[in-house]
Amino acid sequence: MSNESAQASSLLPKNIAALAAYSSAKSEKLTGTTWLNANESPYAKNLELSIEDLNRYPDPQPQLVIDRYAAYTELESENVLMTRGADEGIELLVRTYCEPAKDSIALFLPTYGMYKVTADTHNVGINALTQELLLSGSADEIVAAVGSSKLVFICNPNNPTGSLTPLDKVKAIATALMGKALVIVDEAYIEFCPKQSATKLINEFSNVVVLRTLSKAFALAGLRTGFTLAQASVLAPIRKVIAPYPVSGVVASIAAQAIAPDAITSMRRQVTILNSLKAKLVDWLNASPAALKILTGEGNFVTLKLADKNYFKIALEQGLVMRAFTLYGEDDWLRISIGSEQELEQVKIWLDGLQTPASTASLAGNEVS
Predict the structure, then answer these.
(1) E strand or H helix at 323, and its extent?
(2) Partner of 80 at 20 to 30 A CA spacing, among 17, 61, 147, 328?
(3) Strands 34-35 and 323-327
(4) Aminotransferase class I/classII large domain: from which residue to which, for each copy (predicted)?
């Protein structure tokens, strides 16, 4: 390490020096022709874009976007905060409500990695619980395990398992933790099972917060737009902490178009198609010896345990990029995003090829090398 690097490192707080950064699907720098690794929508948007008035600062919370999203979620505008993706919502909640080196957050593993990374960044403790507890334990057992944690993150549907926590259980947890902790329900994939949304609890519970995004069903992953939904009293201190101009005028213009009533109707049609394609993929996986276990669940993805982790290498050789995972201590898991019919046909070709003698020979070569 150079003297300059050593000097810079000496300035870092211990929690940042020890931080393991979140590895996103795009940070892996893979190459391919069919991309099914980031739970993106296959539908590209055709939007009108105006670049006027860029010499002026934008509205920090663009009213048209706020009003339209409030209408979409059947909430009031005061219950909606627009952020740079749901990730900023996670960061704002931890930064606003947790005291460094004192407070902790509770999460249920395996789950979305940014909860832990954000807590580590702010020197906030991790109360690592399990999805099994969340799904099978009683509300009393869950609350006892949560202990004194200030924030409780429930990814619903959960990424990467697709499991869904019943709304009644979320309500019971929120009831028991009233005045003790915020229950944060991350609904990045809720459009694929909208009846399970916790937004209907917000008016009743001051400690329920819902995170949303336009990255998945709304097909705007590149826009980096999300929403934090809660009672006004919960959002008030967050509004003090958020950056002065978090939403650019261009982003606001695109987001407003994406959540207009006719665009929402279009999104729902696309979700119906994607859910149908997912069912077809599950059928293929059930018929394939390549998949030892399939976690179907909800959301625009399917996670499975491979019979041989070298099958992933074969997919990459074919230009098919999916997301390899280590789950439950095993590194032979794969998450497949639901793409277009043509993209999923590439998955079918890959699966069918794994059952041929030629594919077996390729595996043998991989194992030797």
Answers:
(1) strand 323-327
(2) 147
(3) unpaired
(4) 41-346
